[in-house]
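Supplementary Note 3. Input sequence used for the single-chain structure prediction.
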Amino acid sequence: MRLPVRAGTGLLTGIITSRASRRGAGQLGSTCMTLGTDGAGGYGYSDGAGYGSLDEYYVNGLFIKSIFCADPSGAFVKFGDLGETDFFGAVAIKLSFEGFGDMVYGWSFADLRYEATSPELYDYFVANNGSVRCLSLSGTQAPFDGGMFKNGGFENGISNWKLYPTNGSWSATPDATTAQNIPNTTGTHFYQDFSLEAGATYELSADQISGDGVVTYCVNTADSGVAIADGPHRFIGKSSPESLGVTMSIAGSTPAVVDNLRLTKVDMCVGFDLCLSIGKSDTTEMYGYAPNAPTPYGSMDPSDFMGIEIYNFNFNGTNGTCAVSMGDVGDDKLGTYDMFSTTISEYANNPVVFTWDVDQTRYKVVDLDLATYIKANLGRNIGLTAAPLANNTVTFEGKVVTYNGETVTYTEV
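The predicted structure, written as C-alpha cells, is reproduced below.
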C-alpha cells in the first residue's frame, strides 16, 4: 500500500547523522548520493543491488539501505540492515532533493518500505544517473493518534475493529489507509468495545473523506444520529462494555469513506479552580451539588471557596434560580463581599455574577439558560472559576460598573 500524508498532522524535523564510514562518527544535516543504475530500470542507490552510493549512510543512527526509483510509478526508501525497518514508527517521511524539491513517501505495511508515486522523480533520477546530488530528510509524520481507539487512522487496514452485523459492509480501502462502505448498507456499525469511566465526558471525532450518504457516530451501542461531517460529538461514558465507532445511517449513491476516527476523554475541569460533578435531587428539579440535602447529590473538588465550605451549589431547572450557600449551616457570607463572578467551562454566557440575598442569606442569580446548561450536563464534571467583586460594583449590560462617589467606570466582566 501507499500511504498519503494527511493534512493537519504536521512534519517533524529529522536529523541526518553523518558517518565517515559505515561505522564512523560525525553529524551532517544532509547527505549526497552518487546515482547509479542496475541496468534494468532501477536508478539511485541500493546497498542490496550494489549500485550508487552515499556520502553518509546513517540517519539518526539508522542505516539507509536504499533510495531508488524502480520505474516511473515507483519510488522507494528502505532503512535497516535488512531494509525492512520503519523510521522510528513514522508513517511517512519527506526527503528534499537538490534540484528537484520535496517528495513524501508513505510507509507500506505490506512491503516494509517507504513508497511514493512520481514519474517526475523517476525522470530526475534517470537524468542525474552518474551524477552527485545532495538530499536531506526534512520531515516525518507520526501515526495518527486515534486516542483510545486502536488503529484509529487505519494505517493497517481495519485491524482491531468489529463489524455489525458480523458480515457488515464496512471494509478497508485497497490501500488500507481508510475505511469504506461500498454498498451503503444502512444500519451497519464499525466499532470497538469499551468500558469507560461512568459519568466522565468523552469525545468522538472522524473525517468523512467522500460519499454523499450520512455516516453517524455509534455511541454506547446505538446510532447517535449525529453526523461525523458535523464535527466532534461528546457523550457521557458508561462502565458497562459499550460499542463505539461509526454507523452507515442514510445511504448515498457513492461509497462512504471515513478516516481519522478518534476517541478521547475530555477533562472539562482543566484550567479551572473548582470541579463540579453535577448531580440531581431525587424529589425536585434541582441540579448541582448538595451534600446537605436529605439525599445528598453531586460533588465538588475542592469543596470550599475563599476558605469557607460550600453548603450547596444548586440550579433550579424549572425557574432558573441558581444559588450558592456557604458555611456550616448555609448562611455565611464571603467576608464583606456582596457579589462574586463565576466562569463555567463551555457555558456560552460567561461570566455569571452571583449577588448576596440578605433575606435568604445566600448568593444567587436567576439565569434559566445556565440552569438548563447544568441540567443538560447531568452526571458530568465541569470546571468553575470564581472571584469576588468589590462592593462598589454593579452589573449593567454585561459589564461591571464601578462607582467611586464621583465618576463611573466600567470594564468587561
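The longest strand covers residues 256-266. Residues 274-402 form one domain.
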